[in-house]
Design goal:
Blueprint: E1 5-10, H1 15-27, E2 33-37, H2 40-54, E3 63-65, H3 71-79, E4 81-86, H4 91-94, H5 96-105, E5 108-111, H6 116-133, E6 136-138, H7 146-159, E7 161-174, H8 189-200, H9 204-212, E8 231-233, E9 238-242, H10 247-262, E10 268-275, H11 278-294, H12 298-306, H13 308-311, H14 323-328, E11 329-341, E12 359-368, H15 370-389, E13 398-400, H16 402-406, H17 411-416, E14 423-429
Parallel strand pairs: 1-2, 1-4, 2-3, 4-5, 5-6, 6-13, 7-10
Antiparallel strand pairs: 7-11, 8-9, 9-10, 11-12, 12-14
Helix pairs in contact: 1-2, 1-15, 3-5, 5-6, 6-9
C-alpha cells in the first residue's frame, strides 16, 4: 500500500478549491499533498492553471477521484491521507458524507462551512464517534469564523482578567488601485447558495440545539443586550447592523465547550457589521429583507438562485469575484471586551460578580482577500496545526469549533506568517 499523503484537498476544481490549491503551494511546503474531486480532467486542469500562477510544476501532485454521492470512493479517498481539507459546499448538501468517510477512515477533516445547521448536526451526530476514533472534525475554518472565534481567544489571552462580554464590529471594502474599475461581484455562487438554504432552514436550529445542549447555561451578569437594529458605533465610527453570519453561533458553541470542559465562565458575544453611511446601511437592510422573505418560499429560492446579482445588489454572481477585486478587498474585525481585572477573579467559573465590570480591552483582526485568500490560508493552517500540534488539542478528537480545537496551539502565529493570512493586534487596554 502506498504511503498516506499528509493532506488531500477535496473539491479542488471548484471556486474555493482552486484558490486553496494555489495557497497550498506555499502553506503546505514540505508536506505530501494531493487533490480530489469527481472530474479528473477538471482536476488536472486546475493543477496546470495553478502551476502557471505559482510558477511551479504541479504535474506530479496526486489526483484522486471521489464523488460526494459515492460513499465507497469517499472512504478510499479518506484512507489515502491524514487529513481531508474539504472545500466542496454547500455543506448542507455535500458535507456529511465526507465527514462520515473521514471518521470511518480515522482521518481528520477541516472545512470552511459557515452553515450552523450543518456544523451543529455534525456535532450532534458524530462528536462521540470522532472522539472514539481519535479524529478531529473542525468546521468554520475560513473567514467564517476564524477571525471571530480566534479573535475572542486572542482577546482573552491578552485581557489579564475575566471577560464578561465581547462585541465585534466587522468592516470591509475594496482598496482603489490605479486605473481600477472593477464591478465584479464579491461572492461566488456557492456561497450565495449556502446562505439561501441556511436562512430557509434556520428554524431547524432550535430542535438541533435542544438535543445538542439539553441543559441551559446559567445566566451570567451583567447580561449583554443586543444593540438596536441600526446604530452608529463609537468603537469604529460606522453605522452598524447585526451581523447575519455564523460568527456569533460559532463563538457561543466555543464558549459552551470551555464551560463544559473547564468550568470557565463563558464570554457573552454580539456581532455587528459596519457601513460608512446611514444610506448604505439602509440599502443593505432593504436587500436583506427581500432576501429573508424570498428564502422562506420555494419559488422565492428559485428566483434568488436564478438571479443572484439582481437580488444581492451586485454582491453575488455565478461568475464570482475577479482576482483583481479579491486582491484589493480588505477586512477589519474590531472587538471590544468588558470585564474584571485579574485581582477580582472568582474562585469558580459559575460564580457571579457583585460589582459591575471595570476593565476594557480592544483588539483587531485584519487581512486582505477575506473570502478566498485569507479563507484558504486559514483553512490550510488549521490542517497544518492538527498535523503538527494534535497533542495540544482536547479530548483526542471530536467535532469542534476552531477556538475549542486550537485555543492552546500556535494557530494564530501560523496565520500571521502568510501573505494572505491575518493580523492580530491590541488596540487599547484600560
Amino acid at each position: 500500500m502506498a504511503e498516506r499523503l499528509d493532506v488531500i484537498i477535496f473539491g479542488a476544481s471548484g471556486f474555493t478549491g482552486k484558490y486553496t490549491v494555489l495557497e497550498a503551494v506555499t502553506v503546505l511546503g514540505g508536506l505530501r499533498w494531493g487533490i480530489a474531486g469527481r472530474n479528473p480532467e477538471k482536476l488536472r486542469a486546475t493543477l496546470k492553471e495553478v502551476g502557471v500562477k505559482a510558477k511551479k510544476d504541479l504535474s506530479q501532485v496526486p489526483v484522486i477521484i471521489a464523488d460526494v454521492n459515492d460513499e465507497a470512493a469517499l472512504l478510499e479517498m479518506a484512507k489515502k491521507c491524514r487529513i481531508v481539507v474539504n472545500t466542496a459546499g454547500p455543506y448542507r448538501f455535500y458535507g456529511e458524507n465526507v465527514v462520515k468517510a473521514c471518521i470511518e477512515a480515522g482521518t481528520h477533516h477541516v472545512d470552511v462551512s459557515g452553515e450552523p445547521q450543518y456544523m451543529e448536526t455534525c456535532q450532534l451526530k458524530y462528536d462521540q464517534l470522532a472522539r472514539q476514533k481519535g479524529v478531529y472534525v473542525v468546521s468554520a475554518c475560513g473567514f467564517d469564523s476564524i477571525p471571530a472565534d480566534m479573535g475572542v481567544i486572542f482577546l482573552e489571552k491578552n485581557f489579564d482578567g475575566v471577560v464578561n462580554s465581547v462585541e465585534s464590529f466587522l468592516e470591509s471594502g475594496i482598496k482603489q488601485g490605479e486605473g481600477s474599475n472593477d464591478s465584479s461581484a464579491g461572492l461566488n455562487y456557492g456561497t450565495w447558495e449556502s446562505a439561501i438554504y441556511g436562512l430557509a432552514h434556520s428554524d431547524e436550529l432550535r430542535g438541533i440545539r435542544q438535543q445538542l445542549y439539553p441543559q441551559k447555561l446559567p445566566k451570567f451578569y451583567p447580561v449583554l443586550r443586543p444593540r438596536p437594529l441600526l446604530f452608529r458605533s463609537s468603537e469604529v465610527d460606522k453605522v452598524c447592523l447585526p451581523f447575519p453570519g455564523s460568527d456569533r453561533s460559532v463563538v457561543m458553541r466555543s464558549q459552551r465547550f470551555f464551560y463544559n470542559q473547564d468550568m470557565k465562565r463563558p464570554v457573552q458575544m454580539q456581532a455587528y457589521v459596519g457601513f460608512s453611511s446611514w444610506m448604505i446601511a439602509s440599502v443593505v437592510i432593504f436587500f436583506a429583507s427581500i432576501f429573508g422573505l424570498l428564502s422562506k418560499f420555494k419559488i422565492g429560492r428559485t428566483l434568488l438562485l436564478k438571479y443572484p446579482k439582481l437580488f444581492s445588489g451586485g454582491l453575488a454572481s455565478r461568475e464570482g469575484p475577479s482576482e483583481d477585486s479579491m486582491e484589493r478587498t480588505f477586512f477589519k474585525m474590531t472587538f471590544k471586551a468588558v470585564g474584571w481585572p485579574r485581582t477580582d477573579r472568582l474562585a469558580e467559573g459559575s460564580d457571579q460578580y457583585t460589582e459591575p465590570p471595570t476593565k476594557t480591552l480592544m483588539v483587531r483582526v485584519s487581512g486582505m482577500n477575506p473570502g478566498y485568500g485569507a479563507t484558504c490560508v486559514a483553512l490550510l493552517c488549521t490542517a497544518l496545526t492538527i498535523l503538527r500540534e494534535s497533542e495540544k488539542m482536547p479530548n483526542n478528537g471530536g467535532v469542534l469549533t476552531p477556538a475549542a480545537a486550537f485555543s492552546k496551539t500556535t494557530l494564530i502565529s501560523e496565520l500571521e506568517k502568510h501573505e494572505h493570512g491575518m493580523k492580530f493586534e491590541i488596540l487599547a487596554n484600560k
